[in-house]
């Protein structure tokens, strides 16, 4: 087995540089992949929470989007297969994203303490956000996988009554509050950190074009704008998420004597689906 290992790989492993004395490009490539998978998950989440919140506008609105996801405009009556495919795809993306994230987690209490103390000494909020990112990532490792697996294994058990029963009669509302808070913080703090690291949203262009020097004022102003957008997004998604959880739970309470019954659309238009 040991003979299968190339000398160049061994050199790279020990010295972190290639035999040609170039810094290995692997860490950067893995970082790119982590940012890309993170971005895909944030976009997924933004659509997901909006679709989910349609319950606020009534059972028919949620029923309609559920049927759309089941591709009922192509497959008569809809099918659970598209939801299962989406669930498996999302789980694979989550697995890649989490595996790459684990590399950066402090591997011992000592390391965690060192990072924490350093961030406190510097009073640097962005470093503290990194710690929050590690904690929420850890919570999500369990909650998102359980939730996604539950959805993909029972893809047709989604709908105004089925979901509401889960929230109230299966006591899932507590689980969903934990999932919501962790995922919203993780997603938008992550997006903010990646934007700064990669210079997105004009942050790369913080150099004064005349003097060709780093313009601290421009940089700080742009960062502050980005922080504002991050906070608005967190507040918006937490509010619509928490209101949806409250609505689902209340509907589940009202439906508690008929658990297992599935919703039938009430409007004339939807009756024709
Ligand atoms: C394809 C996979 C997924 C499907 C089909 C799905 C579907 C659903 C449904 C129908 C609900 C309403 C509650 C219920 O019926 O039990 C829900 C809630 C929720 N899901 Fe997912 N989900 C998926 C993956 C994910 C992922 C990957 C995340 C996080 C990145 C996530 C985050 C949430 C959150 C935070 C809630 C709480 C609801 C709220 O606050 O409005 N879901 N999901």
Automatic annotation (TrEMBL):
Subcellular location, record wording: Cell inner membrane; Membrane
BP-aspect Gene Ontology terms: tricarboxylic acid cycle
Keyword Phosphoprotein: no
Main location: membrane
GO molecular function, one term: metal ion binding
Transmembrane segments: 33-57, 77-102, 129-152, 172-192, 232-250
Keyword Membrane applies: yes
Keywords tagged on the record: Cell membrane, Electron transport, Heme, Iron, Membrane, Metal-binding, Transmembrane, Transmembrane helix, Transport, Tricarboxylic acid cycle
Pfam families to which the protein is assigned, alphabetical: Sdh_cyt
Superkingdom assignment: Bacteria
Binding residues annotated for heme b, in chain numbering: 48, 97, 147, 186
A GO cellular component entry from the record: plasma membrane
Alphabetical list of CDD domains matching this protein: QFR_TypeB_TM
Function: The fumarate reductase enzyme complex is required for fumarate respiration. This subunit anchors the complex in the membrane and binds a diheme cytochrome b.
The protein's name in its UniProt record: Fumarate reductase cytochrome b subunit
